[in-house]
Write a structure and sequence with these properties.
Layout lengths: L1 H50 L2 E7 L9 H10 L9 H7 L6 E8 L2 E9 L3 H11 L4 E5 L15 E10 L14 E3 L7 E3 L4 H8 L6 E10 L3 H13 L10 H21 L3 H9 L12 H14 L3 E13 L6 H11 L9 E3 L23 H18 L7 E4 H7 L30
Antiparallel strand pairs: 1-3, 1-4, 2-3, 2-8, 5-9, 5-10, 6-7, 8-9, 9-11
Helix pairs in contact: 1-3, 2-4, 2-12, 5-10, 6-9
Pfam family, one: DUF8128
Protein name: DUF8128 domain-containing protein
Length: 442
């Protein structure tokens, strides 16, 4: 029996080995061709990105903003018009074209909190028009990049940093806690509402920064089509116990082949088809009606419907804290992480760190050492910090992203109301207006 099992397992491997040994020359051209193709695409993509012209706009909110973050939602909805339904294969292959993106930023430098938008020069007018449409008394000024005021490469002998990108803890169609959840009815008139601005905690954290300390928050966004809505339908079907028919990708197909092979081996040894039957029976789930769901499940279902009904953006959420090595306050890291924690809800989504981008590493095989710090831990951490800092400076759109709709983006980035009164928070002090029509100019 053991010899037969070994023959079943090793036989195909031996066949594959001899096939590769005898016919390697038929496979090599395909491998070389695919490798050259992907290398060319990456080269043209980098060439295209380097050719783009960017501008950085500073947005100063008016002194008496009384509007809800909902106004910012209209800004993002308007910017979705920059989305191109698809980039053609010719554009990708010959010019390296990628989808356009914007960077909405909140920068705290030495205790001063400012709002920025970095955009392609071609969309400068579009950004200004969308912001003025909702905040007509705001001030927009093209400025030099604040990220260039620091050394080109960090960490160095003077500065250290900590940063990370954030992903979702749950699937994309499940939303985070948004600005309507921060609104509470006041004890006065029913028509009045007391609004707790979600940016208040970040503003207070930034106000405690000392000179030469910095907290930068970036939201990189690029419009996307309705493909992600299908993912929301799948999540809703899971809650209702329906069969989810998703198109498997290459990895899934490969996993299914391996699983079928293992089941075949078990069936051969036992002389039954129990493994295959058990797998098929496990795929049959009893469907539910919405009335059979718990209160929490119904809330998730409603939240998915609400999120997928609005325009979505592929988004990257990241932040960095930079401070002098001799005065590096880790409390600022905890405070910034706490700002993102307020969007958590037990029934909804939340942010989690992307371990691949976090500027810390425990090294190789840390379990071998009492300190839980393995080989090359310091070296890996150093290069992670260098790479992350450069991505922040260049506003590089990462390979891993999440889907945020207009309501979620408006919650994360909007011009704060007058209730946010952190020190050193610049606002427009004087109202500006256009000159009267027909004014003679000499």
């Amino acid at each position: 029996m053991i010899a037969t099992l070994l023959e079943v397992v090793i036989g195909p491997l031996k066949t594959a080995f001899f096939y590769i040994k005898d016919y390697w020359w038929t496979v090599t051209p395909f491998l070389f061709g695919f490798g050259s193709y992907w290398a060319w695409l990456n080269y043209k993509k980098q060439e295209y990105i380097l050719s783009l012209e960017w501008v950085l706009l500073e947005i100063k909110p008016p002194a008496d903003v009384e509007k809800s973050p909902k106004m910012a939602e209209s800004i993002f909805a308007g910017l979705h018009s920059a989305y191109i339904s698809s980039t053609t294969w010719k554009g990708k292959f010959f010019r390296g074209e990628v989808q356009n993106w914007f960077s909405f930023e909140i920068a705290g430098n030495g205790g001063e909190m400012k709002f920025y938008v970095k955009t392609l020069k071609d969309f400068h007018g579009l950004v200004e028009n969308q912001i003025f449409a909702q905040y007509p008394e705001a001030e927009i000024v093209e400025v030099s990049d604040y990220a260039e005021t620091l050394p080109m490469y960090l960490p160095d002998d003077d500065y250290d940093l900590f940063g990370m990108e954030l992903l979702f803890a749950k699937p994309n169609p499940i939303p985070i806690k948004t600005y309507p959840d921060f609104e509470e009815m006041s004890g006065g008139k029913e028509s009045e509402s007391k609004r707790t601005d979600p940016l208040a905690s970040l503003a207070e954290q930034i106000s405690t920064l000392e000179p030469n300390e910095h907290i930068w928050v970036q939201y990189l966004i690029r419009g996307t089509g309705g493909g992600w809505i299908g993912e929301g339908k799948q999540e809703a079907d899971k809650l209702l116990g329906k069969e989810v028919k998703a198109q498997p990708d290459f990895v899934t197909k490969l996993a299914n082949v391996v699983l079928d092979f293992m089941i075949a081996v078990v069936d051969f040894i036992t002389g039954t088809e129990g493994g295959r039957q058990e797998r098929e029976e496990g795929d049959n789930k009893k469907e539910k009606t919405p009335m059979m769901l718990t209160g929490g499940e119904r809330a998730i279902l409603e939240a998915i419907d609400k999120k997928t009904a609005k325009l979505g953006f592929k988004s990257s959420v990241r932040f960095v804290y930079i401070g002098p090595k001799d005065n590096f306050h880790r409390s600022h890291i905890s405070g910034t992480v706490g700002y993102f924690k307020q969007f958590y809800s037990s029934n909804l989504n939340s942010f989690r760190p992307n371990s691949k981008t976090m500027t810390y590493s425990s090294g190789w095989m840390p379990w071998l050492f009492p300190s839980d710090k393995g080989w090359r831990a310091d070296s890996i951490t150093y290069w992670r910090k260098r790479r992350f800092y450069q991505d922040m400076q260049k506003r590089t759109f990462p390979p891993q992203w999440i889907i945020l709709n207009t309501e979620e983006l408006a919650t994360l980035w909007h011009l704060p109301g007058k209730g946010v009164k952190a020190p050193m928070f610049p606002r427009v002090e004087a109202k500006k207006s256009q000159p009267p029509a027909g004014l003679p100019i000499k």
